[in-house]
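Retro notes (design track)

What went well: tokenization of the new backbones is finally stable.
What didn't: we kept losing track of which sequence belonged to which structure.
Fix going forward: every design gets posted as structure first, then sequence, in one message. First example under the new rule, 325 residues:
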């Protein structure tokens, strides 16, 4: 259980908040940018000089752009940090980008091609289960490949909803984020789809997935969304979620978001919920939120939760207020 926020030193709370905001997975972007998408397995590797490694990847299941290839060579620079590279003896989803020009410059033999490099997007090389047809990442990749091949938008949108509701391993989150980014696909969804997504957003326990579903519903302006998110702050003790509540409340209600959150704040005796609501108010980054938080700081004095909310506002005036002793 999370320690009540008002008992945390300000710096500790800010560090915890930053940790919650770790980089998101970006499989959807890697799939969109890839020239070749396939399930593959690394079956060999050779060094080319001191800095370059050549991985031979067997194609187990071509999804897009393989053009009948049974194997490809992936260029890898092991000395680079934060760099995806093929893993031996593992079936993985590969999102590969063409590296023919680079291979030519390096003088690599044509018969060992075609040459590719891996996507640098986080989460772009997930492990694939034994049942490839049922694997969530593979299903997601096939939905996007089908869309590029001319599948009807309504079919693509419905498939993404299904993944967003039920897929595991972060794929459901990726599907929800993709729908949030694509108004053309959202326009294909029916009222029952939106009812299902709103219910899933309310019931989700994985914070990243919960936020992605809420963001999707916010783009559609689903009625009652912010009220439901605010109520959930009583039980969802997570800084990233509290920040999302404030951000989405401001997106939908502008300056009025502060009043909505403050009404709940005035009615709760719970210290954890109070701290979460304050953080949400700060995360709206509205003028009304700044005024409310500065007034509260003047009346309550030193309060770690109020100071954390001011830091979440990110304005110079808010930071200066926290810096003053």
């Amino acid at each position: 259980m999370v320690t009540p926020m008002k008992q945390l030193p300000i710096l500790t709370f800010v560090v915890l908040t930053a940790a919650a905001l770790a980089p998101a997975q970006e499989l959807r972007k890697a799939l969109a940018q890839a020239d070749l998408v396939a399930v593959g397995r690394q079956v060999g590797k050779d060094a080319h000089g001191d800095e370059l490694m050549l991985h031979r990847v067997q194609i187990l299941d071509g999804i897009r752009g393989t053009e009948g290839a049974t194997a490809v060579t992936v260029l890898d620079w092991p000395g680079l940090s934060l760099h995806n590279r093929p893993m031996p003896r593992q079936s993985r989803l590969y999102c590969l980008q063409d590296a023919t020009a680079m291979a030519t410059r390096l003088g690599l033999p044509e018969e060992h091609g075609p040459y590719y490099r891996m996507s640098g997007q986080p989460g772009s090389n997930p492990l694939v289960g034994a049942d490839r047809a049922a694997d969530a990442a593979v299903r997601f990749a096939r939905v996007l490949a089908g869309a590029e091949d001319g599948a009807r938008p309504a079919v693509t949108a419905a498939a993404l909803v299904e993944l967003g509701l039920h897929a595991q391993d972060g794929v459901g989150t990726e599907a929800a984020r993709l729908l949030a980014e694509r108004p053309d696909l959202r326009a294909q969804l029916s009222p029952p789809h939106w009812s299902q997504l709103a219910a899933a957003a309310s019931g989700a326990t994985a914070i990243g997935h919960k936020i992605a579903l809420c963001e999707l519903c916010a783009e559609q302006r689903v009625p009652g969304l912010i009220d439901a998110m605010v109520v959930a702050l009583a039980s969802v003790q997570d800084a990233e979620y509290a920040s999302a509540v404030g951000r989405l409340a401001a997106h939908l209600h502008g300056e009025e978001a502060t009043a909505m959150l403050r009404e709940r704040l005035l009615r709760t005796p719970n210290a954890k919920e109070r701290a979460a609501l304050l953080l949400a108010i700060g995360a709206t980054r509205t003028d009304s939120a700044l005024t409310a938080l500065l007034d509260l700081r003047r009346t309550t004095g030193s309060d770690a939760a109020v100071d954390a909310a001011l830091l979440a506002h990110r304005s110079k005036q808010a930071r200066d207020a926290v810096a003053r002793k």
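Added context from the reviewer: Residues 1-23 have pLDDT under 50 and may be disordered.
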